[in-house]
Design goal:
heterodimer; A: alpha/beta; TIM Barrel; eight-stranded parallel barrel; 37% helix; B: alpha/beta; four-stranded parallel β-sheet; three-stranded antiparallel β-sheet; 7 helices
Chain lengths: 334, 229
């Protein structure tokens, strides 16, 4: 089966995120960590901070390898609140059978965006004794989702029929409509190779890219320069990550404990010297958003407020990113 | 070679339980090279057992033996007499040796003194590092001789992940990122364009994921292929 033709607006999936990006608007994503329990209220409460302030919100997949409510279940709760989710899917906890099954399940529930990532190693979480799966890697996962979407095909080349197969009846395979994202870390090493890996992810079929949280602007600018040199900014929508912090301690913690982050000492000092650290954290975040918006090829911002969702409206408002576009009618795709 | 580490002494005591006649059997091959299960280490372990029993006021007998290899049937006959005498054989061979001796002597109790850890190399005196995962489908020709399956904590075939910083793996700051090494090696050989090639999804059937593996050389093999032991 040939790849589905996009509709007149260039839409393939029709998620709000895709519509905003393809319309050339600057996109805004949020991020939510599901609770470490089955409490749906945690998601509903958190969703209120994002509603109308972002185009879509990431639901982390057992982030830092700590057991949490499934990102797909949490995403469905978001949909029920009127908030568009982007599920994250790691390669750590599922083999190819479970991944493809969950992707179908997610799409069946109305989820339209997925971010494919390697996942934090299980040694960082609350079950360090666990056996990691890593059957496939994140680049291969991107290619898999594209196959399921564009060719209605699983990794093994089999089709995805509408019902349990009855060979006596003809069928048309059902595509899995997902807008495919991948992560890029401009602050990981080796630096030059980060763009090569980005190119591999885009070649594998990533529609959008979300970056690691940016604090080191010069390094991010160099990364974007290399990205533009290869024309990658025209092949996928690059969404810059920002992570607002309430105190210098959060920055120091990340600097010392989170692999693949670059946090300038001046920023730690600035936060340390602030009279009102929360206010300063908001200012820093808005400044970074302003700066990344001016970089050619950056098509949106991804705000990741760890346990600080209530700050999102303030940041989005001060950054001049309101109002967010609304879509009364669902997009006609396919 | 196969690299192993000794189990804690307390655990070995627990495994041996009430056994009074203990055969400690050393292996002269891999575990001798990695200084954990050769004649010398087995003798040390035997002495530890005798001293511990003496201090605990228990009567035990410990015999020591050593085989060229525990993983080859032709060497195992030498154990027969001692095995008949012993309540338990405490093997300082790797897990392969424990399995084969136990398969060949199904009525005897054969227990491990070691934890078998990996296929590795002595890269510096006193240091062994994992080099191969025995995945059954080698990709080393594409990766400059560096195995992404075991040298990368996530077995990433299109690496590196976002956790590589200063060339180190996020899982252990004392371990170089395998992909950092692969990139440097291929760059150094003028092969960096190969790094842009997408490595497709791996067929894990050749690994343990496909169940227990075996290899038969027809010209030499004289047994019944269906018999496991």
């Amino acid at each position: 089966m040939a790849a589905p033709a996009p509709n007149a607006d260039g839409l393939v999936v029709g998620s709000s995120l895709e519509r905003v990006l393809r319309a050339g608007r600057f996109a805004v994503c949020g991020e939510m960590g599901p609770p470490q329990s089955c409490n749906p209220e945690a998601i509903r409460r958190s969703a209120q901070h994002f509603l109308g302030k972002v185009d879509a919100v990431n639901l982390t997949d057992n982030q830092t390898a700590i057991v949490r409510m499934s990102s797909i279940a949490a995403a469905k709760l978001c949909i029920d609140c009127g908030l568009e989710p982007i599920i994250q899917m790691t390669c750590r906890d599922r083999n190819r059978i479970a991944m493809q099954s969950d992707l179908m399940g997610a799409a069946a529930l109305g989820i339209r965006n997925v971010l494919c990532i390697s996942g934090d190693h299980q040694c960082f979480g609350n079950h360090p004794e666990a056996r990691g799966v890593y059957d496939i890697d994140s680049v291969q996962l991107v290619a898999t989702v594209r196959g399921m979407r564009d060719r209605s095909e699983l990794m093994n080349g089999e089709g995805t029929p509408p019902r349990p197969r009855d060979p006596s009846k003809p069928w048309a395979n059902v595509p899995t409509p997902l807008f495919v994202g991948a992560a890029a870390n401009p602050f990981g090493d080796p630096f030059e190779f980060r763009v090569v890996r980005l190119a591999k992810k885009i070649a594998a079929g990533a529609d959008f890219i979300q970056t690691q949280a940016i604090y080191d602007l010069p390094r991010f600018e160099r990364f974007m320069e290399l990205t533009r040199d290869r024309g990658l900014h025209e092949k996928a929508f690059i969404i810059a990550g920002v992570l607002p912090v309430k105190s210098h301690k959060a920055l120091t913690y990340m600097k010392d404990n989170v692999a693949g982050m670059s946090i300038p000492d001046e920023l730690v000092e600035r936060m340390k010297g602030a009279e009102n650290a929360e206010e300063e954290g908001i200012r820093v975040c808005v400044e970074i958003i302003d700066a990344v918006r001016r970089i050619e090829g950056v098509r949106g911002v991804h705000i990741m407020p760890p346990l600080w969702e209530r700050v999102v409206p303030e940041i989005v408002s001060r950054a001049g990113l309101l109002p967010r576009p609304t879509f009364a009618e669902p997009a006609e795709v396919r | 070679m196969i690299v192993a580490a000794r189990k804690p002494f307390e655990e070995i005591l627990d495994i041996l339980g009430d056994a009074e006649r203990i055969l400690v059997s050393a292996c002269n091959t891999c575990v001798t090279v990695c200084l954990v299960g050769g004649r010398r280490e087995a003798a040390l372990l035997a002495s530890q057992l005798r001293i511990h029993a003496q201090e605990a006021g228990r009567e035990i007998e410990v015999r020591e033996s050593a085989l060229e290899r525990h993983c080859d049937r032709e060497f195992l006959d030498a154990l027969t007499e001692d095995l008949e005498w012993a309540d338990v054989m405490l093997s300082t061979a790797c897990g392969v040796g424990v399995n084969l001796v136990a398969d060949v002597n199904p009525t005897r109790r054969i227990v491990p003194a070691l934890n078998t850890t990996f296929f590795g190399a002595t890269d510096l005196p006193g240091r062994w590092r994992e080099m191969c995962g025995g995945c059954g489908d080698c990709v080393l020709h594409k990766t400059g001789g560096i195995c992404p399956v075991v040298r990368c904590a996530k077995s990433i075939l299109n690496g590196p992940c976002g956790g590589c910083q200063d060339g180190k793996c996020e899982v252990d700051k004392d371990t170089t990122c395998a992909w950092q090494d692969i990139i440097e090696r291929l760059d150094g050989q003028g092969r960096s364009p190969e790094l842009e090639v997408f490595e497709p999804i791996k067929d894990w059937r050749a690994s343990h994921a496909g169940g227990r593996r075996r290899r038969i050389v027809e010209e030499v093999f004289a047994g019944d292929a269906e018999v496991s032991a």
